[in-house]
Amino acid sequence: MKRRDFIIKSSLAGMALVALPKIYSQDSKITKLQVGNPLRFPPELQEGESLKFNSANVEVWPGTTTQVLALNNSYPGPTIRVQKGDDFSVLFENQFTEEATIHWHGLLVPELMDGQPKDAVQAGSNYTYSFPIIQRAGTYFYHSHAHHLTAKHVYKGYAGFFIIEDDDELQYGLPTGAYDIPLLIQDRHSVYQPQFNYAPNMMDRMLGYLGDIPLVNGTPDAFFDVQKTLYRFRIVNGSNARVYNFGFSDNSQFWIIGTDGGLKDEAVPVSNVFLSPGERIEILYDFSPIDIGNSVSLQSQAFSGIGNQGTLMDILRFDIAGDSSSGGVVPQNLLPIDYYDINDKTGTRTFTLSQAMMGTGMHRINGLTYDMNRIDEVIPFNELEEWKFINSTNNYHPMHVHGVLFQIYSRNGNTTLASNDKGWKDTVLVKPNETVQALVKFIDYSGTYLLHCHNLEHEDDGMMLNIKIDTPTNIEDENTSPNNFELYQNYPNPFNPSTTIKFKLTNAGFATLTIFSLLGTKIETIFAGNKSSGSHSITYTNKSLASGTYIYELKVNGYALRKKMILLK
Ligand code: C2O
Ligand code: CU
Ligand code: CU
Questions:
Q1: 5-20 pLDDT per residue, tens
Q2: Atom of ligand 1 lying closest to residue 464 CA
Q3: Which ligand ends up closest to the CA of 452?
Q4: What's the pLDDT score for residue 15?
Q5: Omega before 269 cis (within 30°)?
Q6: Is the distance from the beta carbon of residue 450 to the nearest atom of ligand 1 less than 6 Å?
Q7: Quick one: which atom of ligand 1 is closest to the CA of 105?
């Protein structure tokens, strides 16, 4: 196993991203109209560097500054790049005057690492987020998730890329390094330029705070010099409310290769794709048919939507500047996906999205507005469920679930899915008066997670529920909370093949330490015997189990404590 600590590799991508615009404009023999601003890239978070939240003045429009809410004075926030199997850990320092969190959108992490509003880090406080990277490679992102403040914090600049890489991806010959480009798309209001004033009126609270200026990685009027070759673009919709209908200005074809949860199982050619707030898409685009000196633009093409949704926008201009090759190919097939079978479902859950009067709590799920202290749904662990999102409104609701990657089954009963619906998802756009069926199975962590609309005005208005993922069944419940002994998180975790489990007894007693599968099947007892009062540590080694999450249980005098550990081979 390759267990790496959180190392930001000085990968080609990392280095080239920062340097790209310069290198290419030097190489370019073409004198072109220098209209606009070269596409910017946030710095990559370095090992050991913390993330400090504060307001900062940054240059968004040349020659003037914008007051943003930023991590490490950077808008967008620093890009985090990790490998599957890493132990990620970062200190979050809240130096601002409002509470905040870091939510790792799309990442499968323990409840207390999920950055939920209930776990806000108060102004002036610090918190260490640490979790193992247990999921597929893909394009994820992070943003603040503070109660009633998410929309404002994100609008003012608090969001960044979180990219997971793994070796499985390498076999497909996709463009890499300087040809693998992350794009964070956000919209801002020109009336407040150069400021990011967050001032939604009643209409904005209803429809979402829709700006009219697109920023790409924080760059207005962005252009990017490209070579006549194939590129991979990782597109994050980090806008508060805007739905984009991405396409190119010449209507040329591109390939969808990835969704929210990483690579799809095939590359699908399309000429446009919808992307709602919170969603990601990865595409391949081939610039080789375009002559050097010419340009093509990524646009959001017009569609009919309410309010200002659906207006045509030029987002990013690509200037063809040279004819180097990325060496990348469009692969026939990509990473296989095990599709859920709806016949395996153990239940159905319905979420009706509705709209109430003006005021607070206008946007609701099952008639409810968010209450941090209320659990709205209890969901069994490791069971496949059908979730129905019924949109009874004429607004867009990108529905997002924490703690899981799910699959879409149908739209309005139609099981022939568009290519961006097919693959692993954490956010699904539910269009006006549409019903979307999803297949959902929580297999990684139990605890309280969130289900909400990722239109951030809707979310802050309360379009959000607490969902509680049950502890695995078949394991007898703890009959009391013993306070005369403690069980600690194993270390290292994930592990292979050995890890150390520590516990502490206040009084001497008969202790058993047992390993269970997530479904409660006993795997082995690793210790049973008398232990004195004080701290103990036991090393557990396993060479035969498959990679996965396991439970270890310490029982003393009839009372039990349990924790999870991850074996990663
Ligand atoms: Cu990206 Cu709960 O959100
Ligand atoms: Cu999320
Ligand atoms: Cu909504």
A1: 433 333 333 333 333 3
A2: 2
A3: 1
A4: 36
A5: no
A6: yes
A7: 1
Q: What is the phi-psi region of residue 454: left when phi exceeds 0, alpha when psi lies from -120 to 50, beta otherwise?
A: alpha
* Ligand 1 atom nearest to CA at 116: 2
Q: Which fold has domain 342-469?
A: Immunoglobulin-like (2.60.40)
pLDDT band at 339 (very low <50, low <70, confident <90, very high): very high
> Is ligand 1 within 6 A of the CB of residue 402?
yes
Q: Residue 449 in 3-state DSSP?
A: strand
Cβ 452 under 6 angstroms from ligand 1: yes
Q: Which ligand is nearest to the CA of 425?
A: 2
Distance 454 CA to ligand 1 centre (A): 6
Please state the pTM of the whole predicted model.
0.81
Strands 219-220 and 213-216, how do they pair? antiparallel
- Compute the residue count for the chain: 569
The residues that bridge with 185 in the sheet, in sequence order, are 216, 237
- Owner of token pair 């108060």: 122
Domain range 485-567, CATH class: mainly beta
CA of 246 from ligand 3 middle (Å) equals: 20
Cβ of 280 less than 6 Å from ligand 1: no
DSSP string of 379-421? E-TT--EEEEEEE-SSS-EEEEESS--BEEEEETTB-S--TTT
CB of 189 within 6 A of ligand 1: the answer is: no
- The residue whose CA is least distant from atom 3 of ligand 1 is 105
b (16+ CB within 10 A) / e for 267-304: bbebebbbbbbbbbbbbbbbbeebebeebbbbbbbeee
Rounded Cα distance, 335 and 172, in Å = 9
**Comparing C-alpha atoms, which of 224, 191, 223, 233 is closest to residue 209?**
191
The per-residue pLDDT for 33 is: 55
From residue 164, alpha-carbon distances to 38, 262, 369 in Å are 26, 9, 34
364 alpha carbon, closest ligand: 3
Largest CA distance in the chain: 81
For 195-204, what is each residue's pLDDT tens digit?
A: 999 999 999 9
Cβ of 422 closer than 6 Å to ligand 1, yes or no, is no
- Cis (ω within 30 of 0) for the bond into 175? no
- At 181, which amino acid appears? I
pLDDT for residue 167 is more than 70: yes
Domain ranges of the chain: 342-469, 485-567
Q: How far apart are CA 518 and CA 562, in angstroms?
A: 11
Q: Among 398, 225, 429, 400, which Cα is nearest to 316's?
A: 225
